[in-house]
Write a structure and sequence with these properties.
This protein has a domain of 202 residues: Rossmann fold. It is built from ten helices and 13 strands. Helix 1 links the parallel strand 1 and strand 2. It is globular, with a radius of gyration of 19 Å. This is RmlD-like substrate binding domain-containing protein. InterPro entries: dTDP_dehydrorham_reduct (IPR005913), NAD(P)-bd_dom_sf (IPR036291), RmlD-like-bd (IPR029903). It comes from Nitrosopumilus cobalaminigenes.
């Protein structure tokens, strides 16, 4: 199998590369952070012809579309930029995949839902309340209507060890802060399904092997608030959990409210027999991987 990861310099992209590269031909794109390993191409997905031509040239079986403007607040304050990257950029990737009939794997988000239900399954009607959620939902719709085979993987709060150029994540931010003996404020009314990133790659491999298509919730098994997640993380890393300060989201100056959308991964488990780890198991695996 030949795979192209659009947005390979990101945390999810590199872990997918690492998982697939031994048995498959995997190429990656980057925008500003040049990847120091693998077969790489610089690409701005807003450049339509360059995007189409690169996909045509590589002619991959699978294109993992992992490029997005993911800052929820920036998407809200710069809606045009959010639309350009998350919608128009996705259109360009789709156009390339139409030519090569490549299967698209689109990394999406629980923020396509408003969080008013206790739990969401894949066929629940989306209802985003943020511009980020709106643009990611539009990307999903474009892919569903594209006529090419696809997988839409909705995942939440990915975490793992990172490369030096990558943005941090909730686990590593906590570890770095508490190691410096600094106080860290964690929110008690934001809930997520934290997902250990290597599990996303495992799930993708099994979905591709079983020739699955459609939408899947690829998330960890725990629906947990940031403060409780922080307590578990600090305990497993042997750090002082007394440095964690519980706060509520209304004490922060945010551009938009987050929705607490609890994604069910039952469909994933039923279809491929695999469930991403819960918080405790995921962090324990991080510690093993570090050693």
């Amino acid at each position: 199998m030949k795979m192209l990861i659009v947005g390979g310099s990101g945390m999810i992209g590199t872990k997918i590369h690492d998982h697939f590269c031994n048995k498959n031909t995997v190429e990656m794109t980057y925008l500003t952070h040049k990847i120091p390993f693998g077969t790489i191409h610089q690409l701005d997905i807003l450049e339509r012809e360059n995007t189409i031509n690169l996909i045509r040239k590589i002619n991959p079986d699978v294109v993992v579309h992992n490029t997005a403007l993911v800052s929820v607040d920036l998407c809200e304050t710069d809606k045009n930029l959010a639309n350009m990257i998350n919608v128009e950029g996705t259109k360009n990737v789709i156009e390339g995949c139409k030519i090569t009939n490549s299967k698209i794997v689109f990394i999406s988000t629980p923020l396509v839902f408003n969080g008013e239900k206790d739990e969401y399954v894949e066929n629940d009607a989306p209802s985003p309340i943020s511009q980020y959620g709106i643009t990611k939902l539009e990307g999903e719709k474009l892919i569903e209507k594209s006529g090419v085979p696809y997988l839409i993987l909705r995942t939440d709060q990915p975490y793992c060890w990172i490369e030096t150029w990558q943005h941090t994540n909730s686990v590593l931010r906590l570890v770095d802060t508490l190691k410096e003996k600094k106080t860290l404020r964690e929110i008690t009314d934001w809930y997520n399904n934290p997902t250990y990133v290597p599990d996303i790659a495992i799930a993708l491999e099994k979905l591709l092997e079983n020739e699955k298509n459609g939408i899947y919730h690829v998330v960890g098994t725990d629906f947990i608030n940031r403060f409780e997640w922080g307590l578990i993380t600090s305990e497993l890393f042997g750090l002082d959990k007394k440095l964690l300060e519980p706060i509520t989201s209304d004490s922060l100056d945010l551009a938009v409210k987050r929705s607490n959308a609890n994604l069910s991964n039952r469909k994933l488990v039923e279809d491929i027999g695999f469930s991403p780890k819960g918080v405790k198991e995921g962090i324990q695996q991080m510690l093993k991987d570090k050693k």
